[in-house]
Amino acid sequence: MKQLTALIAVAFALAIPLGGCNTFRGAGQDIQKGGEKVEDAAKKRQ
Fold it and tell me: What is the rounded end-to-end Cα distance, in angstroms, of the chain?
């Protein structure tokens, strides 16, 4: 029983940072798209 509990704890400990990677990647993509829109707007003003 202790081994199962330890295995579950390790699985959760590894899952949290891996989930965070997807969150940061998604945020980076959103920021990139926002930057592209700003760039496009600046080109239209020229």
Answer: 69
Q: How far apart are CA 25 and CA 27, in angstroms?
A: 5
Residue 7: pLDDT band (50, 70, 90) is confident
What Cα–Cα distance (Å) separates residue 1 from each residue in 5, 11, 17, 20, 34?
6, 15, 26, 29, 50
SS3 16: helix
Q: The pTM is what?
A: 0.50
DSSP secondary structure letter of residue 4: H
Token duo for residue 15: 């899952």
Residue 21: predicted pLDDT: 65
Angstrom distance (rounded) from CA 23 to CA 25: 5
